[in-house]
Structure formats: structure tokens, C-alpha cells
Specification:
The complex is a heterodimer.
Chain A lengths: L4 E3 L2 E4 L5 E6 L6 E8 L3 E9 L2 E4 L8 E7 L2 E6 L8 E8 L8 E2 L3 E5 L1
Parallel strand pairs in A: 2-11
Antiparallel strand pairs in A: 1-3, 3-8, 4-5, 4-9, 5-6, 7-8, 9-10, 9-11
Chain B lengths: L3 E3 L4 E4 L4 E7 L6 E7 L6 E7 L2 E5 L2 E6 L4 E6 L8 E8 L7 E2 L3 E6 L1
The chains are: A mainly beta, B mainly beta.
């Protein structure tokens, strides 16, 4: 298996621009998670899906953030408009099952907003 | 109060040392305990997985859960420079709708 795939690996954009991050989970996994990692705040859960349905989005910082999962093999995290404080590494992870499920992380997207 | 607390370090040890990494958690309902290893500029990778209490050993790594004290540990024997990474603990429960990650402990093993 190729593991969790994320694109792009690096993104540099100017403040105010729209940013779209993409994720392909491991085939057969029914849970997908989006995380953000910064030095100050560590790893933060933004939102997670079960069978393509958003279950908990309480970690999404603002309305500028939105996430979709149109099918079992693809998810997007969109930031519109982007701000410098959104600069972070964004990880996608997937698992089979939730509380007992082992999460497998993608390589991350390093976002820099100038 | 955070659900899980982890000393951020950094922790620096000489090669061959025994390393002890720890997390404390607040809710006794947690049943699933994991340790992830994250190399610089990489995603976290699952290292150890434990359900309920007790010990689990995998090569040089031992995960220990003490539910009475709400304390989990990861021991690394004969530490190697290749073990230099950030180690994150993660906990969850069947009745909860999410996992909780510790802030991570940065480990440096000096040759």
C-alpha cells in the first residue's frame, strides 16, 4: 500500500489567497483526520470524517477553514482567505475504526502564508 | 486541564542509554494508548499500541500503562542516534469521539 498521500508537499502563498490541501487515505480505512502542527500548539485535530461524513469539526479554527470528503478516496482542506497565522504543517491521517484504530499519517503539507 | 500532558523536553542522552518518556492523562475512561515517533519534517508514525493496562515489548521498545496512576511510559533500551526524534503519546476511549495527542518530547541521542 502507498500509505496516506498528501499534496502539495509545500505551499507558499500570499495572504488573502485561497489554499487547497489534498489527501488520499489508505484504501479501506473508514476514518480520515486533518491535523495542524505548529511549534507553539503542537498537533491539533481540526476535523475528522467517518465514511465520508464529517463527525467532529470543533477543532476548525474559523469559518475560513472548510473540509470536504466527496468520496472514500479523497478529501480536501481549504483555507479562504489565508492569513500568515495559518502557516503550519497540515497532516492528513486515516484509520480503520476510531478509538481503537491505529492512525496512519501522511507526509504533511508545509504551508507558508506571507 | 488538558486531557494528556507530556514533558516537551528536549531530552539529550548518550548512545546506549536507557530512555524513559512519559505522559499523564486525566480521564480514567481512556483505554487505548499509543506512542508515535516523528522524525524532523516527516509525519508521525505509529510505534507502539497498547489496549488497557500492562506492558508491551517490541525489540528495544517497551510501552507501559499504569491506569491506577493514569501514567504511560515508553522505554527505549540501548538507544541509538537513529532514535533521535520527537515522540508523541496518544490516548483514546471507545466512548470518546476522538484521540488526544500529547505535545511531544524531543529526544536527541548523541553518538
Amino acid at each position: 500500500d502507498a500509505g496516506v498521500i498528501q499534496s502539495p508537499r509545500h505551499e507558499v502563498t500570499e495572504m488573502g489567497q485561497e489554499v487547497t490541501l489534498r489527501c488520499k487515505p489508505i484504501s479501506g480505512h473508514d476514518y480520515l483526520f486533518w491535523y495542524r502542527q505548529t511549534m507553539m500548539r503542537g498537533l491539533e485535530l481540526l476535523i475528522y470524517f467517518n465514511n465520508n461524513v464529517p463527525i467532529d469539526d470543533s477543532g476548525m479554527p474559523e469559518d475560513r477553514f472548510s473540509a470536504k470528503m466527496p468520496n472514500a478516496s479523497f478529501s480536501t482542506l481549504k483555507i479562504q482567505p489565508s492569513e500568515p497565522r495559518d502557516s503550519a504543517v497540515y497532516f492528513c491521517a486515516s484509520s480503520s475504526g476510531l478509538a481503537g484504530g491505529k492512525q496512519y499519517f501522511g507526509p504533511g503539507t508545509r504551508l507558508t502564508v506571507t | 486541564q488538558k486531557e494528556v500532558e507530556q514533558d516537551p523536553g528536549p531530552l539529550s542522552v548518550p548512545e546506549g542509554a536507557i530512555v524513559s518518556l512519559n505522559c499523564t492523562y486525566s480521564n480514567s475512561a481512556f483505554q487505548y494508548f499509543m506512542w508515535y515517533r516523528q522524525y524532523s519534517r516527516k509525519g508521525p508514525e505509529l510505534l507502539m499500541y497498547t489496549y488497557s493496562s500492562g506492558n508491551k515489548e517490541d525489540g528495544r521498545f517497551t510501552a507501559q500503562v499504569d491506569k491506577s496512576s493514569k501514567y504511560i511510559s515508553l522505554f527505549i533500551r540501548d538507544s541509538q542516534p537513529s532514535d533521535s526524534a520527537t515522540y508523541l503519546c496518544a490516548i483514546g476511549a471507545a466512548d470518546f469521539n476522538k484521540f488526544y495527542f500529547g505535545s511531544g518530547t524531543k529526544l536527541n541521542v548523541k553518538p
